[in-house]
Amino acid sequence: MKDGSDAVGDWEVLNVLINTAAGGSWISFHHGGGVGMGYSLHAGMVIVADGSERAERRLESVLTTDPGMGVVRHVDAGYDKAIETAKEKGIKIPMINEAGDQ
C-alpha cells in the first residue's frame, strides 16, 4: 500500500467483521495465500443465493459493503483514484474531508 500499511492486519479483521454484519453466509479469515504462512492475511466470504428475498437483501448488502471497504481502505492509504471513486459513488468517508482540511 502507498502508506506502508499493508503490513498491518487491522483492515482484514475489519473486513471479516463487516462481511459478518452485512449478512455473509460463510466468512473466513486466513493467512498464507501462496506467499508463505503468516506473511499475508485474507478475508473471504460466501453468500447463499437461494432465490429468497432474504438472500437477495444479504447479497446486496455484502456485495455493497465488501468492495466499499476496499475503496475506504485505499482512501485511507492515500490513493487519489480511490478518493475520486468514493466521491463519484457517494461513499461517505470522513477522512476525505479531514485530508482536505489539512
UniProtKB/TrEMBL annotation:
Its EC number is 4.2.1.49. Residues 1-88 form the Urocanase C-terminal domain. One of its GO terms (molecular function) is urocanate hydratase activity. Gene3D superfamilies: Urocanase superfamily. Keywords: Lyase. One of its GO terms (biological process) is L-histidine catabolic process. SUPFAM superfamilies: Urocanase. The keyword NAD does not apply. This is Urocanate hydratase. It comes from Staphylococcus saccharolyticus. The gene is hutU_4.
